[in-house]
Amino acid sequence: MGKKLRIGVIGTGGIAHPHARGYMSHADAEIVGAADIVPGKARAFLDEFGLAGAKAFDSAEELIRNVEMDGVSVCTYNTTHAECAIAALEAGIHVLCEKPMSFTVAEAADMVRASRRAKKILTIGFQPRYDRMRRKVDELIGSGALGKVYYIQSGGGRRRGIPGGTFVDKAKAGYGCLGDIGCYSIDECLHAVKYPRPLTVSAVATDYFGKNPKYWPGADDFDVDDFSVALVRMENDVTFVFKQSWAMHADSLGDTLWLGTEGAVKIKNGYDAGSAPSRVMYYTDVNGMNVDSFVLPSVPFDSTWEPRYSDMFDMKVWDFCDAIIEGRPAPVPGEEILYNQAICDGIYRSSKLKKEVEIEIPDISV
Questions:
Q1: Superfamily of domain 132-303
Q2: Cis (ω within 30 of 0) for the bond into 100?
Q3: What's the gap between Cα 233 and its chain centre?
Q4: C-beta separation of 281 from 293 below 8 A
Q5: Per-residue pLDDT tens over the stretch 191-227
Q6: 0.90 exceeded by the pTM?
Q7: CATH architecture of the domain formed by 5-128+312-332
Q8: What is the largest CA-CA distance in the chain?
Q9: Could you state, in order of their start, the residue ranges of all structural domains in the chain?
Q10: In what order do the strands lie in the sheet with 122-125?
Q11: Helices 183-191 and 334-353, interaxial angle, to 10°?
Q12: SS3 assignment for the chain
């Protein structure tokens, strides 16, 4: 490629750093500008990466107005994702927006409509999709080997792991645990079955640990969820049980599970940075016999093939860049993550109202 992609970064906090490293390691991209509402922060960020020629601003609007860009990463706090992404899209700029997509489902729909009107990419930052074993699980479930999938549950959770800063400030984060890691769990569970439409949700969210100074030093200012659980009814008689935690007196909320009429897949809970194959189990029957087996990694039959392991965050950024260059659709399209956001929105409303609520998906036609 001759001319490099011109990339901007909106919001230069912690999450912006792996975005910058991803762009700088892509042969056909360069960072040309950054913006942050904290005066001087964008300049310090660019200087940290040796980007003396890139321009720094104190607002997204100034960056968009003054720098010609092909794409931007939106790395601001959650409640400003929508306004920053929409401003960039309306200016004809492709957008990689960090998760969660937004705070409300209405904002998410506005983002999708802006993307469609501009005919520009809106992709959402779910880098776990690039994990090699997760892709194997998606392929197995997508093959139809499980028959009709009728029950899905998320697992995992943190025994200890409350983050600080804007993560626990409702005005900036909107959600707590739900928006930080819960949206990842929702995507892991539902992308594998092509995101059936959610219909209703009954949820409970609590803040027992964040509000207790015994466990969290900023308890007086903590105003988001640190635990949530939900029962989501979905189209085609699919039941989804969601669980997520920043803190709890247990080692796990269980395993991730897909139950089907012809088989099941379980991702056994347990920390393993390399996604050990023994964590993924496949259950079915053959000739009337129960068959329980490990899902093992596989490689092509080509003897010259060599594995290429890359950081998932890099792969997320590279895929965004390559989609722009090649004219491909968004790698993680906003239209799909709209359902993820609708579930988060429903969990939030249900927990506040203390009752089951309907999930309404806004019309995104333009």
A1: Dihydrodipicolinate Reductase; domain 2 (3.30.360.10)
A2: yes
A3: 21
A4: yes
A5: 999 999 999 999 999 999 999 999 999 999 999 999 9
A6: yes
A7: 3-Layer(aba) Sandwich (3.40)
A8: 68
A9: 5-128+312-332, 132-303
A10: 55-57, 29-35, 5-10, 71-74, 94-98, 122-125
A11: 130
A12: CCCCEEEEEECCCCCHHHHHHHHHCCCCEEEEEEECCCCCHHHHHHHHCCCCCCEEECCHHHHHHHCCCCEEEECCCHHHHHHHHHHHHHCCCEEEEECCCCCCHHHHHHHHHHHHHHCCCEEEECHHHHCHHHHHHHHHHHCCCCCCEEEEECCCCCCCCCCCHHHHCHHHHCCCHHHHHHHHHHHHHHHCCCCCCEEEEEEEEECCCCCCCCCCCCHHHCCCCCEEEEEEEEHHHEEEEEEEECCCCCCCCCCEEEEECCCEEEECCCCCCCCCHHHEEEEEEECCEEEEEECCCCCCCCCCCCCCCCCHHHHHHHHHHHHHHHCCCCCCEHHHHHHHHHHHHHHHHHHHHCCCEECCCCCCCC
Instruction: Compute the radius of gyration of the chain from its Cα atoms.
Output: 21
Query: Could you give the CA distance from residue 230 to residue 233 in angstroms, rounded to a whole number?
Result: 10
Q: How far apart are CA 61 and CA 187, in angstroms?
A: 31
Packed helices 105-118 and 334-353: angle between N→C axes, nearest 10 degrees: 160
pLDDT digits (tens, 9 = 90+) for 153-200: 999 899 999 999 999 999 999 999 999 999 999 999 999 999 999 999
